[in-house]
Amino acid sequence: MNSRLGDDIALSELAAVSGLSAGHFAFAFKQSMGISPHGWLRRQRIDVAKTLLRNQQLSLSSIATSVGFGNQSAFGVAFRKETRMTPTAWRRLHWS
After folding, report:
1. Which of 14, 36, 61, 73 is deepest in the core (most CB within 10 A)?
2. CATH number of 2-94
3. CA 96 to CA 93: how far, in whole Å?
4. Is the separation of the CB atoms in 66 and 52 below 8 Å?
5. Can you give the pLDDT at residue 8?
Protein backbone atom coordinates (compact mmCIF):
# COMPACT_ATOMS: atom_id res chain seq x y z
CA MET A 1 0.00 0.00 0.00
CA ASN A 2 2.84 2.39 0.79
CA SER A 3 4.37 2.00 -2.65
CA ARG A 4 1.05 2.87 -4.29
CA LEU A 5 -0.13 5.88 -2.28
CA GLY A 6 -0.90 7.81 -5.45
CA ASP A 7 -3.09 5.05 -6.86
CA ASP A 8 -6.75 4.30 -6.29
CA ILE A 9 -6.48 1.03 -4.39
CA ALA A 10 -9.65 -1.04 -3.99
CA LEU A 11 -10.27 -3.00 -0.81
CA SER A 12 -11.10 -6.02 -2.97
CA GLU A 13 -7.64 -5.78 -4.56
CA LEU A 14 -5.92 -5.78 -1.17
CA ALA A 15 -8.07 -8.64 0.00
CA ALA A 16 -7.26 -10.68 -3.10
CA VAL A 17 -3.52 -10.22 -2.55
CA SER A 18 -3.90 -11.50 0.99
CA GLY A 19 -6.21 -14.36 -0.03
CA LEU A 20 -9.09 -13.10 2.13
CA SER A 21 -12.56 -11.78 1.44
CA ALA A 22 -12.86 -7.99 1.53
CA GLY A 23 -14.81 -8.12 4.80
CA HIS A 24 -12.38 -10.49 6.50
CA PHE A 25 -9.39 -8.46 5.28
CA ALA A 26 -10.86 -5.21 6.62
CA PHE A 27 -11.63 -6.86 9.97
CA ALA A 28 -8.18 -8.47 10.27
CA PHE A 29 -6.44 -5.25 9.23
CA LYS A 30 -8.29 -3.22 11.85
CA GLN A 31 -7.62 -5.86 14.52
CA SER A 32 -3.92 -5.81 13.67
CA MET A 33 -3.35 -2.11 13.00
CA GLY A 34 -6.03 -0.50 15.15
CA ILE A 35 -7.36 1.45 12.17
CA SER A 36 -9.34 0.62 9.04
CA PRO A 37 -7.45 0.09 5.77
CA HIS A 38 -9.00 3.29 4.40
CA GLY A 39 -8.02 5.27 7.49
CA TRP A 40 -4.48 3.92 7.39
CA LEU A 41 -4.12 4.79 3.72
CA ARG A 42 -5.45 8.31 4.31
CA ARG A 43 -3.01 8.81 7.19
CA GLN A 44 -0.06 7.67 5.07
CA ARG A 45 -1.09 9.97 2.22
CA ILE A 46 -1.35 12.93 4.58
CA ASP A 47 2.07 12.16 6.08
CA VAL A 48 3.64 12.24 2.60
CA ALA A 49 1.68 15.40 1.79
CA LYS A 50 3.11 17.12 4.87
CA THR A 51 6.61 16.58 3.51
CA LEU A 52 5.58 17.90 0.10
CA LEU A 53 3.89 20.94 1.64
CA ARG A 54 7.27 22.14 2.90
CA ASN A 55 8.20 22.83 -0.73
CA GLN A 56 6.61 26.19 -1.55
CA GLN A 57 7.08 25.54 -5.28
CA LEU A 58 4.50 22.72 -5.27
CA SER A 59 0.86 23.68 -5.67
CA LEU A 60 -1.80 22.18 -3.44
CA SER A 61 -3.48 20.57 -6.44
CA SER A 62 -0.25 18.89 -7.57
CA ILE A 63 0.36 17.61 -4.04
CA ALA A 64 -3.21 16.35 -3.84
CA THR A 65 -2.96 14.32 -7.02
CA SER A 66 0.53 13.02 -6.25
CA VAL A 67 -0.66 11.46 -3.00
CA GLY A 68 -3.79 9.93 -4.47
CA PHE A 69 -6.60 12.43 -4.01
CA GLY A 70 -8.88 13.13 -6.94
CA ASN A 71 -8.82 16.86 -6.44
CA GLN A 72 -7.67 19.63 -4.11
CA SER A 73 -11.03 19.76 -2.34
CA ALA A 74 -10.95 16.08 -1.36
CA PHE A 75 -7.36 16.53 -0.23
CA GLY A 76 -8.35 19.50 1.95
CA VAL A 77 -11.16 17.57 3.60
CA ALA A 78 -8.94 14.57 4.34
CA PHE A 79 -6.05 16.76 5.51
CA ARG A 80 -8.30 18.64 7.92
CA LYS A 81 -9.74 15.36 9.24
CA GLU A 82 -6.23 14.11 10.07
CA THR A 83 -4.64 17.35 11.28
CA ARG A 84 -7.51 19.68 12.20
CA MET A 85 -5.84 22.25 9.93
CA THR A 86 -6.14 23.14 6.28
CA PRO A 87 -3.15 22.31 4.07
CA THR A 88 -2.50 26.04 3.61
CA ALA A 89 -2.53 26.72 7.35
CA TRP A 90 -0.26 23.72 7.98
CA ARG A 91 2.13 24.93 5.27
CA ARG A 92 2.31 28.42 6.79
CA LEU A 93 2.97 27.01 10.26
CA HIS A 94 5.64 24.54 9.13
CA TRP A 95 7.29 26.40 6.29
CA SER A 96 11.02 26.45 6.71
Report:
1. 14
2. 1.10.10.60
3. 9
4. yes
5. 80
CB 63 within 8 A of CB 76: no
Closest CA to 83 of 95, 93, 69: 93
Q: What is this structure's pTM?
A: 0.85
Listed by start position, the domains of the chain span 2-94
Q: Please, are residues 60 and 69 in contact by the beta-carbon 8 Å criterion?
A: no
User: What tens digit of pLDDT does each residue of 25-62 get?
Assistant: 999 999 999 999 999 999 999 999 999 999 999 999 99
Read off the pLDDT of residues 2-26 as tens digits, 9 standing for 90 and up.
777 778 888 898 899 889 999 999 9
- Number of neighbouring beta carbons within 10 Å of residue 52: 16
